[in-house]
Amino acid sequence: MDITRKRFCTAGLLQCILALFIVLLIGEAVTYASAGQGHEAGNAQEQLVVFGKIVNPHGAGVGDAKITIFFNGKVLEPPHSGHGGHGEQGITTERDGTFQAEFQVPEGSSHHATIEVEAYKPSYERTKVEIKDLATGKHGLAATAHVEIKRTLGPAFWIATVVFILAYILISFELLHRTLAAMLGASTMLVISYTLGSFNPEYHILSYESAIHAIDMNVIFLLMGMMIIVGILKHTGVFQWCAYKCYQLARGNVIILSIILMSFTAVASAFLDNVTTMLLLTPVSIEIALSLGISPIALLLPEILASNIGGTATLIGDPPNIMIGSYAGLTFMDFVVNLAPVCLVSMAVLFGYTKLVYGGEYKKATVTDIQAFIAKLREEYQITDGTLLTVGLIIMSMVIAMFLTHGVLHMEVSIAALFGAALLFTYGLVTKKIDLLELIEKDIEWTTLLFFMFLFILVGAVEDTGLLDIVADWVLHLSHGNLVASICLILWVSAIMSAFVDNIPFTATMLPIVAYLTQVIPGAQSGVLWWALAFGACFGGNGTMIGASANVVTIGIAESAGYPMKFIGFMKVAFPYMIISVAIANVWLLLAY
Question: What pTM was computed for the model?
Answer without folding.
Answer: 0.76
